[in-house]
């Protein structure tokens, strides 16, 4: 009898041990899931963007309750000034970071600061999800550097009622643009609103004049330092630009004005047009939105295929990220067409994923049409060029627009900047 009890006790003990082991294993598994961590570092330009990112993170948390998401957002200038230091931290970088496609991103990749995602790109079949032009600009030597999450158009905005009243059609060629400008001046209207206080709105003019005059390949080579600023082809660009300055086509006092401060001149018909990126669309007053039109930058050389500015934002995994599995889960989530469609609708930008819904906003949709017709995309002057060159170069552009530098003086200044960049 005692032996039976003993055997029973042993059996009970073994059963209890198995039960406890299984319970502990399940608990450990649950603890392991809840211990997953994802550190995000994002760039924002204002409270609205911050709110959209918060909602994006909340949606991810809902689908991935086992991952603890920690995130920090920084204003644009702070972010750009500190990103390389964050990537180089010896104790580890954030798991997912935001940046721009272009030469600067490729520079981080060349330095080994960015984790390759070729396997993830292939397993998710993202070559089919994103158009070739978008896939190209997020790659370095054929290798994807990050996930495209948004891009936007550039173009020339105008008030349709003003053009109709003056019998003006949106210009398609450079000569037509000059004629439109002179027609506006005859009515006492400055042809172009411009606020160049931040300098980059002036750089947009250089980009488009060079793209339309010399084409995308030369433009990329110039910004990457493979072509010289004192090249004859650049002199041609600056001569065209200088002609606009001589004709007084730009708003007086623009260097003391932000791009937002220049918008009322367009609204009140004190200026007839404005070259600006798609991010301007949410700024337009609701009572005027139906009267705002958009056309692409006119053709200068009909032999050149039309390339467009299409600044593209991406998310990437730093090489020193500690939580790669969670980082890849976040990229897979943000790549989905439903998420990209929602995110870009809220941001007023265009979803890179081909399966995402088209933009609902009329002007953003028109911008998407412009980009679909393009032969290729450029990022932007200060996204394609090292900061030590782009920053003083943009200062020189503004001086040129203010007639403080001639064409020859600007050419010499740009060549000197390239040879002796800011430290």
Automatic annotation (TrEMBL):
Residues 1-28 form the signal peptide. InterPro entries: Bact_solute-bd_prot1, SBP. The keyword Cell membrane does not apply. Keywords: Signal. It comes from the Bacteria. GO terms for cellular component: periplasmic space. Its main location: periplasm. It is found in: Periplasm. PANTHER family: ARABINOSE-BINDING PROTEIN-RELATED, BLR3389 PROTEIN. Belongs to the bacterial solute-binding protein 1 family. This is Carbohydrate ABC transporter substrate-binding protein. It comes from Marinobacter confluentis.
């Amino acid at each position: 009898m005692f032996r039976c009890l003993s055997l029973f006790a042993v059996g009970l003990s073994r059963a209890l041990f198995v039960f406890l082991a299984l319970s502990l294993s399940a608990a450990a598994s649950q603890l392991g899931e809840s211990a997953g961590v994802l550190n995000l570092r994002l760039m924002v330009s204002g409270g609205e963007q911050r709110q959209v990112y918060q909602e994006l993170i909340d949606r991810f948390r809902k689908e991935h309750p086992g991952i603890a998401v920690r995130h920090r957002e920084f204003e644009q200038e702070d972010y750009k000034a500190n990103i390389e230091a964050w990537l180089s931290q010896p104790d580890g970088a954030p798991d997912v970071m935001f940046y721009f496609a272009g030469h600067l991103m490729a520079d981080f990749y060349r330095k080994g600061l960015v984790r390759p995602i070729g396997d993830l790109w292939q397993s998710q079949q993202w070559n089919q999800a994103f158009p070739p032009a978008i896939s190209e600009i997020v790659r370095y030597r054929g290798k994807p550097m990050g996930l495209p999450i948004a891009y936007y158009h550039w173009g020339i905005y105008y008030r349709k009622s003003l053009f109709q009243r003056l019998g003006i059609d949106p210009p398609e060629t450079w000569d037509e643009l000059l004629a439109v400008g002179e027609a506006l001046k005859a009515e006492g209207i400055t042809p172009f609103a411009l606020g160049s206080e931040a300098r980059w709105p002036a750089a947009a003019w250089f980009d488009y004049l060079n793209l339309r005059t010399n084409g995308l390949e030369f433009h990329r080579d110039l910004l990457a330092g493979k072509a010289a600023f004192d090249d004859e082809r650049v002199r041609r660009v600056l001569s065209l630009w200088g002609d606009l300055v001589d004709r007084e086509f730009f708003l007086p006092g623009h260097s003391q004005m932000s791009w937002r401060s220049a918008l009322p001149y367009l609204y009140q018909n004190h200026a007839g047009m404005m070259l600006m990126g798609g991010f301007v669309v949410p700024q337009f007053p609701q009572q005027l939105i139906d009267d705002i039109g958009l056309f692409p930058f006119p053709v200068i050389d009909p032999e050149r295929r039309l390339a467009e500015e299409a600044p593209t934002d991406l998310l990437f995994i730093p090489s020193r990220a500690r939580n790669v599995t969670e980082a890849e889960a976040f990229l897979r989530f943000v790549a989905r067409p439903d998420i990209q469609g929602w995110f870009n609708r809220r941001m007023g930008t265009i979803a890179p994923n081909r399966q995402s819904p088209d933009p609902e906003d009329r002007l953003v949709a028109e911008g998407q049409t412009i980009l679909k017709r393009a032969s290729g995309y450029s990022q932007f002057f200060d996204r394609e060029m090292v900061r030590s060159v782009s920053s003083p170069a943009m200062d020189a552009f503004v001086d040129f627009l203010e007639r403080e530098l001639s064409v020859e003086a600007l050419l010499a200044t740009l060549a000197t900047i390239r040879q002796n960049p800011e430290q």
